[in-house]
Amino acid sequence: MYRYSCMASRAILHVDMDAFYASVEALDDPSLRGKPLIVGGTGPRGVVAAASYEVRKFGVHSAMPMREALRRCPHAICVRPRFERYREVSRVVFDIFHAFTPIVEGLSLDEAFLDVTQSLRAFGPADAIAAQIKQRIREQTGLTASVGVAPNKLVAKIASDLRKPDGLVVVPAEAVTELLDPLSVRKLFGIGNKTALQLERIGIRTLKELRAAPDALLRPIFGRYVALMKARAAGIDDRPVIAEWDEKQISSEETFDTDLTDVRTLHDQLARLADRTASRLRAQGWLAGLVVVKIRRNDFKTYTRQARLQPATQQTRPILSAAGRLLNEWHQEQPHAAVRLLGVAARDLSAVPQLELFASPEQERERELDATIDQIRAKFGHGALYRAAALRRAK
Amino acid sequence: MKFSCERESILGLLQSVIGVVERRQTMPVLANVLVVVKDDQLSLTATDLEVELVAKGTVTVQQPGEITVPGRKLLDIVRALPEGAQLTVTVEGERAIVRSGKSRFTLSTLPAAEFPTIEDIRAQQTLTISQAALKRLLDKTHFSMAQQDVRYYLNGMLLESNGKTLRTVATDGHRLAYCEAPMDTPAAELQQVIVPRKGVLELQRLLSGDGSVELMIGTNHIRVQIGHIRFTSKLIDGRFPEYGRVIPTNPPRVVTADKDVLRAALQRAAILSNEKYRGIRLSLKPGVLTVQAHNPEQEEAEEEVDVTFTGEDMEIGFNVNYLLEALAVIDGQEVQLGLTDANNSCLITAPSMPHAKYVVMPMRL
Fold this sequence. Notes:
The complex is a heterodimer. Chain A is α+β, with helices and mostly antiparallel strands. Chain A has helices at 20-28, 53-56, 66-72, 83-100, 120-123, 126-141, 153-160, 176-180, 193-201, 207-212, 215-222, 226-233, 263-284, 316-333, 361-380, 388-391, and strands at 12-17, 37-40, 48-51, 77-79, 104-108, 111-115, 145-150, 168-170, 250-260, 287-297, 302-313, 339-350.
């Protein structure tokens, strides 16, 4: 039955470089090898960008204030980050990925998802591809990476984290539940500290317990995402790996004067950026099929998160709501991060509009509203008019 | 629980329900089928929480009971047994044991009480229609349903009865398919329900025989008994768009063409259309329809099709897939395209099937 054609099993790799910045520093300066090493700013606002495994056992982790890190591990050696050098090494690593599949979704300089489903015929089974990638990274850069191999992104990411550093964890489809069941609910993206505590209060600590919990019990915590979270706890995730083609995009981004930590403020800023991006789409006559949110932490680690827009659109509301969901997902993973830069990009642009059969009254109202806003801005400048969500912060 | 039967009798039942056994189950029990034996009857139930299928057959029951077992594994085992083999299924402790000749399989189980079933759907209305007519209604319209659209009410098919006829309508917002057929017995009132995509595809697969079926419609479910199989699907709670407004009446330009000739020309031109947008240009002149396609590599296709047309010249663009999918379900040799202008939809009809209409919105080229 063709119903199932799209459900064929996938082979997804999550490759995560081990303590990337710190490892690059140790690589370039052999005297640092095996030493407790922290990469980060040393000024009063300095934060840890990366920590070697020798420091991590003292409880030091990235995004921690440098002062706190040095209190925990006073004998650590600090070096300033050299992003140009990290980008250079990252390019070598990503070239290795691209030798095995064109479908590579980079999450940051040192982390990517690879869909190798179509590469199995040419390069052998997924675990062999993972081993070859690790070997080539070691040969060409001298660094180690941890790889998770699984039928989807969710499980691959959890797997790569299980045996760091230099790990390779392969999770066949039939072993997914067995692997996930005993893990803490905190391993699931979308469950941060706050949610985990709420779950613990009702006796749910492991993914197995979450999977088995009655919907009614979870509804107060997850709202309408109960089914989604249960599916994730069962290791179900059909999000595609979205390759970054070298293609046209329309984006708006902003670096903030002071780092932002408040989630509401982040959403207000996001609303402003999404509005600006959508406005540009309309001005240039494009429809976006993909929205990408870019987030840079104060330690300069940069993340991108993307989602499909179906149907493709140029309206502010659907772009903003997709971007908002992506920001939420990221923020739940990193609730304490300080954000230096936010960006909203529209990709997968199509210029040939398929005309619509039904313009729903709400859609029509949205379209008219967007058009009116655009007209006013054309006359009085972009700052003349903002959505109320973006204004809250200005007060 | 213990029962015996011939391989073929349980194989048929398993194959009828296996389509809804989840591969990527959110709850482990959904990978199982519910097995109930009593009164010389075996009943197998599978569900994905949206669609439920129950198949019943006769077996020799030694001890009544109920249990759930992994559906696909049981099917694979039964299918691989030799033809005509006798098999016995027993439950011992927490295991189900399948024995046949010198083979023995021990399967894991989950309690029947954990299996979600849909019992009473509180039917408020029953529509009776021949199986063949219902299958035709689904076959002629299903391809236009949306998939994973944010407008969730489009990810399914509208069933609508006006008392005498049953209509099916499917649309993804770019094109629409409409078909109607008379019902066996008149129904009381006007009723609209939206059956989710999964339910439509499963129902379509089950309809094959002669005779009539009853569509029982409750507030939240639709249920159809087809031979020994009971199909139940949730309904989509939403408002289907007013489709009547977007079906053109009397378009000013009517083009009559040989369906197979037009279809073949479109298929050839499609090869060189842009892979993403699938856009083609139709140029209409008296007696001739020209189909043109080109792609980003600057490759071009041009086809001329002889047609019956006497009106004013015009040009219009379409996603060629939408035209091809409509032409694929049209019966008979002749097809008519009703056009207004480059910004309005095309109505596709055929004299041999007056009860079906297809509407495709153009692309701006």
